[in-house]
Amino acid sequence: MTLIPVEFHGIHTTGPEQFTCVILRWAEQNRVLPIWLSPLAAAELDIREGGYTPRRPGTVDLLLDLLNRTTGGVTAVNIISHFEGVFIASIVLADGEQLDARPSDALLVARALELPIHVEEDVLTHTSFFVSDDIMEESFGLRFDSVPQAGGEELSASGDAKADADFEEMMRSLGMSESDFFRGNGPHGPLDRDDDADTGGSRGDGEKE
Fold first, then answer.
1. H and E: helices and strands count for the chain
2. 150-173 burial code (b ≥16 CB/10 A, e <16)
3. Cβ proximity of 91 and 103 under 8 Å
4. Is 206 contained in some domain?
5. 102 contacts 205 by C-beta, under 8 angstroms
6. Does position 122 have pLDDT exceeding 60, yes or no?
7. For residues 111 and 8, what is the distance between their CA atoms, to the nearest angstrom?
8. How high is the mean pLDDT of the chain?
9. Which domain holds residue 183?
10. pTM, to two decimals
């Protein structure tokens, strides 16, 4: 398994439905991976990002306290698989054990402990995508410097221009475009959104209320 570090770029809302997601960025390839969150999970992560500390321990605080007492704590947080639209994260413990987790819970742990977030390379390759600087700035208030190649040309979305062209052709054949992501819609309606799921252009937890 090859794990790639990703940058955490906060919680954002998009589309007329105001869906919430975390933006992770694969800086080396200038690609983004959105992890869609339920409103409740997004709100908890957002307030903690803003510096809020609950007067009584929340679920994540109890989890971390238990892990510190029984295993020596957490050493890493990874997103390790994506199967049939569902992301699975892994919380790695000091004793070498790994706990499967929802992406929302894993992200809470990572941010609470200020741990870097890593994503398995195959997951990134298949679920992340290029978004132009202008759209990132307009939609999320984020702007990243384009990654230049040695000859001064900008790196293509994936680093493979033919693969990017094939991907764009596939998207067109499905009746989708880059803007569908920001409207929160696919060719058959809302883009795989589940109000109690963590997703990345697809379901994350696979649970419903």
1. 7, 9
2. eeeeebbbbeeeeeeeeeeeeeee
3. no
4. no
5. yes
6. yes
7. 9
8. 77
9. 3-190
10. 0.70
Number of domains observed in the structure of the chain:
1
Q: What's the average model confidence in pLDDT over 93-113?
A: 94
DSSP assignment of 26-84: EGGGTEEEEEEE-HHHHHHHHHHHTT---SS--HHHHHHHHHHHHTS-EEEEEEEEEET
Out of 62-66, 98-102, 137-141, 178-182, least confident range: 178-182
Please report, for the domain that includes residue 121, its CATH number. Answer: 3.10.690.10
- Note whether residue 200 is domain-resident: no
C-alpha–C-alpha distance, residues 85 and 123, integer Å: 11
- 8 vs 106: CA distance, rounded Å: 13
What are the Cα distances from residue 161, in Å, to 34, 107, 134, 156, 170? Answer: 22, 32, 20, 6, 14
- Asked whether 23 and 142 are in contact (CB, 8 A), the reply is yes
Is the pLDDT at 91 greater than 50, yes or no?
yes
Q: Is residue 14 part of a domain?
A: yes
Distance CA 103, CA 119 (A): 11
pLDDT interval class at 143 (50, 70, 90): confident
- 85 versus 67: which is more confidently predicted? 67
**pLDDT for the residue 174:** 43
Per the domain annotation, does 202 fall within a domain? no
Cβ neighbour number for residue 186 with a 10 Å cutoff? 17
